[in-house]
Design brief:
5-stranded antiparallel sheet, binds alpha-D-glucopyranose, binds calcium ion, O16G_dom_2, GH13_cat_dom
């Protein structure tokens, strides 16, 4: 284990407290329930939890409408329960990062209530107002089809207020220094209670200029440095993980040229092109996405990688033809799609429950450049419930066993229905069953996580996409501290044979397979010939298993590659 920059070789697990485990039998998951499942999570091998919002909220957007930043929603427990939970994580060496939702508040937040009541209120300027409805109010809505405008009339305030998201989520005026000071206070509060950082929600909107006069919002990147400095003063190894679905040309702005802004950013570019590659077996756009999102390494910067999360699979950055290809493969029906840009299903049903395909997808999550972020339930291949609205379909309770309500609660009426019946029902898909089955997806995931942790080259190293002569096969070589790892993936449902020049000119070393016994020696021409079965994948070490005897020490995160 490498002690420093823990997030570069972490395995992050994302969950919502409300749908994980209900300890007190009211049908809603809570911190006590989650705490009882920490041994499960530790056994799986995750090293960091990312909790969705759990603060008091009217819960009209899965908690992304916060009504009090300094508390725990009573549905989930108390601040005392939170501290017990965070202590229990610390005992197990598991870190916790939490959602920081500060682009907007709930309209029920006392700040907004005060602001709308009284134009003289000090909170008035914490939000964004206009006397007239701006002409571009119908533009830039985030949830097309559900949300109509970004400016809504507030009767009490007798003014329009700006909301980038739903109308019950008024935007905070984040340029206001008082608001900024308050946001730092919020971060300081949770750091004191034991968290190791924040997943910053909707960052491009947080830092955008806002107001009726703003035609083209500008990003105020300096704000990110302010957040970063504060967090690191308070807790040296705390990190910020940005949700910023932006173009590769501006990614670097979120990291900062000197690595002085966000340590981590989710890689949406790779995510979308990965799904295109899975749908089409054409890995070229994915390889390009990897190249254009290459961050200078080694350094403190790191990508967060994911397959699915709590939102829809956003395909908005693909070309229309590419998007259609992914829709056809993974979400052909209208009710599987959402907001004209994405697919709202879980991973396992998208991949037709095909174990070979699922392993391929997960193997990629664990071997592309960055830190893997898993979604709860994906380790057992949970499904979705398309009868639920919008993104709720992929947020159903965790399926623990084949007992009533999947072992999630003793109540008859859980927060969202537990998926029951059919190929993905809790009767068939549950953690208890899978842990008894040596070949089950759960145990496979546990083993792959274990191996991933032993390959810090992937999280830390430099990478090179190697030519394979086949569009369906992607080969990536990682180098770090005199050690090298090679991963090869066949995206096709047909077998492929490839010849790889792994080591440039010199004599290529033996490839030691890390997951099975078929090692590979170079042929006379120095190249390695591999036959990959449909959806086949390989993890190799170059040389031999004495690599730890050969590993050199290096600067911690330090110097950038020039
Ligand atoms: C982010 C969240 C999403 C939420 C939105 C508004 O995109 O991931 O779930 O609806 O922000 O807070
Ligand atoms: Ca409960």
């Amino acid at each position: 284990m490498i002690k420093d920059l823990w997030y570069k070789n972490a395995v992050i697990y994302n969950l919502s407290v409300g749908s994980f485990m209900d300890a007190n039998g009211d049908g809603i998951g809570d911190f006590q329930g989650l705490q009882r499942r920490l041994d499960y999570l530790q056994g799986l091998g995750v090293t960091c939890l990312w909790l969705g919002p759990f603060q008091p909220s009217p819960m009209r957007d899965h908690g992304y409408d916060v009504a009090d930043y300094y508390n725990v929603d009573p549905r989930y427990g108390t601040l005392g329960d939170f501290v017990e939970f965070s202590h229990a994580c610390k005992q197990r060496g598991i870190r916790v990062i939490i959602d920081l939702v500060v682009n907007h508040t709930s309209d029920q937040h006392p700040w907004f209530q005060a602001a709308r009541k009284d134009p003289e209120s000090p909170y008035r300027d914490w939000y964004v107002w206009s006397d007239k409805k701006p002409a571009d109010a119908h533009q830039g809505v985030v949830f097309p089809g559900v949300q109509k405008t970004t400016w809504s009339w507030d009767k009490e305030a007798r003014a329009y207020y700006f909301h980038r998201f739903y109308d019950f989520q008024p935007d905070l005026n984040t340029a206001n220094p008082e608001v900024q000071a308050e946001l730092l206070k919020v971060m300081g509060f949770w750091i004191e209670l034991g968290v190791s950082g924040f997943r910053m929600d909707a960052v491009p909107f947080v830092i955008a200029t806002k107001g009726p006069e703003v035609k083209k919002p500008k990003q105020q990147f300096d704000m990110l440095r302010t957040f970063r400095e504060f967090v690191q003063w308070r807790c040296g190894d705390a990190v910020l993980l940005a949700e910023a679905n932006v173009l590769p040309t501006v990614d670097q702005e979120y990291f900062g040229d000197d690595g002085d802004r966000m340590q981590m950013v989710f890689n949406f570019q790779v995510n979308q092109n990965l799904f295109y590659a899975l749908a089409s077996a054409d890995t070229r756009p994915l390889a390009k996405a990897l190249e254009v999102t290459r961050v200078p390494r080694p350094s403190t910067n790191q990508w967060g990688l994911f397959l699915r999360n709590h939102d829809e699979l956003d395909l908005g950055r693909l070309t229309e033809a590419q998007r259609k290809r992914v829709f056809d493969a993974f979400g052909p029906d209208k009710d599987m799609q959402l907001y004209d840009r994405g697919i709202r299903r879980r991973l396992a049903p998208m991949l037709h429950g095909d174990r070979r395909w699922l392993e391929l997808a997960y193997s990629l999550l664990f071997t592309l450049p960055g830190t893997p972020v898993l979604r709860y339930g994906d380790e057992i291949g949970m499904g979705d419930d398309l009868s639920l609205p919008e993104r709720e379909c992929a947020r159903t309770p965790m399926q623990w066993s084949d007992e009533p309500q999947g072992g999630f609660t003793k109540a008859d009426d859980p927060v969202l229905p537990v998926i029951s019946g059919g190929a993905f029902g809790y009767e068939r898909i549950n953690a208890a069953h899978q842990r008894r089955e040596p070949t089950a997806l759960l145990n496979w995931t546990e083993r792959i996580i274990r191996m991933r942790k032993e390959c810090p080259e992937i999280g830390w190293g430099d990478f090179q996409v190697l030519p394979t002569g086949s569009n369906a096969v992607l080969a990536i070589r990682y180098d770090w501290r005199n050690n090298s790892v090679l991963v090869v993936h066949n995206f096709d449902d047909r077998p492929h044979e490839v010849a790889l020049a792994v080591d440039g000119e010199g004599k290529s070393p033996r490839l030691v397979n890390l997951l099975a016994e078929d090692h590979n020696d170079p042929e006379e021409d120095g190249r390695h010939r591999l036959v990959l079965e449909p959806y086949g994948y390989r993890w190799y070490r170059l040389g031999g298993l004495d690599y730890l005897l050969r590993r050199t020490e290096g600067p911690v995160g330090g110097a950038k590659r020039s």
